[in-house]
């Protein structure tokens, strides 16, 4: 089958098929006399495998390892399980990081009055964060006596100075 047919049969775009060939995830297929790529069922099966692994969040390097294990009939299932559990641990860490980002953004949004005034605790928090800082939880820690977030820079007006717009 040609690349379009392989793409349709596998659910992987033709562009990604070419990319997977270029990086060695998929062996370069034989070509027709006209120079067109010709794919067989094995290639389509490999593409489906790669698509499923990508949908599960595996990196290209992890997929390369999975493909190697898949093709190795003498593999130990323990190797596949170990790779999968490492991926699960990475996912759990990313989920925790995303949850922390969500919580920080929720706190910042709650600290924002959302009115016509220019002071914005969300922007102040982002302006204050230094390299490698995520600003996590800062909205709560920086609430002033009137319940707002203190602006981040020295030239920004502070509500407690009476300089905030009303």
Major β-sheet profile: none
The rough form would be described as elongated
From the helix content, strand content and strand pairing, which structural class follows?
A: mainly alpha
Which sequence of SSEs, written as H and E, runs from N to C? HHHHHHH
Strand content: under 5%
Quickly count the helices.
Answer: 7
Number of strands: 0
Radius of gyration: 26 Å
Which runs of at least 5 residues are low in confidence (pLDDT < 50)?
Answer: 135-166
Overall pLDDT metric:
84
- How many domain units? 2
Helical proportion, percent range: 40-55%
Distance between the termini: 69 Å
Polypeptide structure, described:
It is built from 7 helices and no strands. 18% of the residues are buried. The C terminus is likely disordered. The chain is elongated. The chain has 2 domains: 55 residues, Multidrug-efflux Transporter Regulator, Chain: A, Domain 2 (Orthogonal Bundle), CATH 1.10.1660; 67 residues, no CATH class. The chain is mainly α and 166 residues long.
């Amino acid at each position: 089958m040609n690349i379009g047919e392989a793409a349709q049969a596998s659910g992987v775009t033709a562009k990604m098929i070419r990319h997977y060939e270029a990086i060695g995830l998929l062996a370069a297929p034989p070509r027709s006399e006209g120079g067109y790529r010709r794919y067989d069922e094995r290639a389509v099966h490999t593409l489906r495998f790669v698509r499923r692994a990508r949908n599960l969040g595996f990196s290209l390097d992890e997929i390369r390892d999975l493909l190697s294990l898949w093709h190795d009939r003498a593999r130990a299932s323990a190797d596949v399980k170990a790779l999968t559990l490492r991926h699960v641990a990475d996912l759990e860490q990313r989920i925790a990081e995303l949850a922390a980002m969500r919580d920080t953004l929720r706190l910042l949004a709650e600290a924002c009055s959302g009115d016509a005034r220019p002071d914005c605790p969300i922007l102040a928090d982002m302006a204050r964060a230094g390299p490698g800082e995520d600003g996590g939880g800062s909205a709560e820690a920086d609430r002033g006596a009137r319940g707002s977030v203190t602006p981040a820079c020295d030239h920004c007006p502070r509500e407690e100075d009476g300089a905030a717009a009303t």
